Amino acid sequence: MAKFLTFSYFEFLSILLIWFLGYSAGNDVDNSTVQIPLLDIQHVPLVALFDTTNLNKVLTTYINDTVEKTTKDKISNMKNDLLKDINNDLVRADERPAFSASRTSSKTLGLNEVLTFDKVWLNIGNGYEPSTGVFTVPKDGIYFISNTVMSTKGKFLHCHLWKNNESNVGSFGTDYSSGTLNTVMALRIRDKIYIKHDVYNNESIYGGHWSMFSGFLIN
């Protein structure tokens, strides 16, 4: 009596998986067939031969197409990333650092307190940090640095420009008057430039954008 084999979807996938894992290695069959031992519903040993010629072609085409597409995509992405990095480097090489910031609110200053100018109007090169008031030089060169500070009503204000740990030129204001300093400095990358209050008690800086700090690379 002829015996008919029936396979569920998952059983058929299992058969294919066994073939992919090389189960048929060493079996005496040609490359276009795979030999799978089976049991029918009456537990009688059977052998099923599957013709894999078309499957081999489909899988080979799929794998080749997938590998080719993946390789092309990766090469394209690498090329785009490289061009982007080169363009960014060219922009940075031609970039002329400059910054300008002002202070929005008035404040009574502590001894040796570094002044902060929280409203940033310009920050090419991202050298100025408004939270600390420090300009970190991003490129060697000759810089123009400027600062204006206004004192509050009835108060004095003594300040100096600092380069790293060295005091430079100073400015002074009293009773709503402004003190301004302008200087040209030879600076190196990572130098720290900032405005510091001198050692005087009970002095205040006026806000409202009347006090400012700026600088830019000349050459």
From TrEMBL:
Residues 92-219 form the C1q domain. Residues 1-26 form the signal peptide. The keyword Repeat does not apply. SUPFAM superfamilies: TNF-like. This is C1QL. GO terms for cellular component: extracellular region. It comes from Mytilus coruscus (Sea mussel). It holds the Pfam family C1q. The keyword Signal applies. It is found in: Secreted. Keywords: Secreted, Signal.
